[in-house]
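Collaborator request log, item 7. Partner lab (contact: R.S.) asked for a structural prediction of Metalloendopeptidase-like membrane protein to inform their binding assays.
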Amino acid sequence: MLNTLLDQIEVFPIMGTALDSANTMKLDFSPNNKTLETIDLGNTDAFNTYVFGILEQSSKTYGIGGYFEHRAIYRRSTVFATNEKAFRDIHLGVDIWAEAGHPVFAPLDGKIHSFQDNAGFGNYGPTIILEHQVETVTFYSLYGHLALSDLENLEVGQNINKGDLLCHLGPFPENGDWPPHLHFQLMWTMMGLVGDFPGVCSRAEMEKFQKICPDPNIIIGFKDED
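Returned to partner:
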């Protein structure tokens, strides 16, 4: 449905430049990546060294991935911890990993739906949610792990134009204490929430959230030519 809506609309690159195999590589944070077992993921500095070491070795500016990925990295934080059956480890958005301070641009016209600092180890940190309308269809985009300064001077209902500088990748620990990256997610409904929305679900909830959260690659447009 979103593909059809966006067919006639040129989307502005979220990171200011098109992401392709020349500047971007996919990163695997699933249990298939056994290297993760050797890293103290609770130590953000060690986690950061791992992520950006991979990018440096590959001469890439960006790492990308994660839509509905079963992830092995969430046991680093009690934010995701419930009982084992309901443990939230299915990622609902796409992460774009890049250096702190990197600018993030609005991909489409919209307005500020809500924003807040979702503070806490492993949480979103500073978060902005935009509301978009294409023809008669409304949907939402979420930007998490931002810089605290990005929340200054924002107003609910404020118009945001496609291509506007929206925010920046935040440094840890203010970004929720993660290696710098953008969590970008799309939602058909906010489920009554303000300033926050689940970015990870349990395997029991996958069917529900697959209906609510379309693939963000529709907007990101990453072209992996390898």
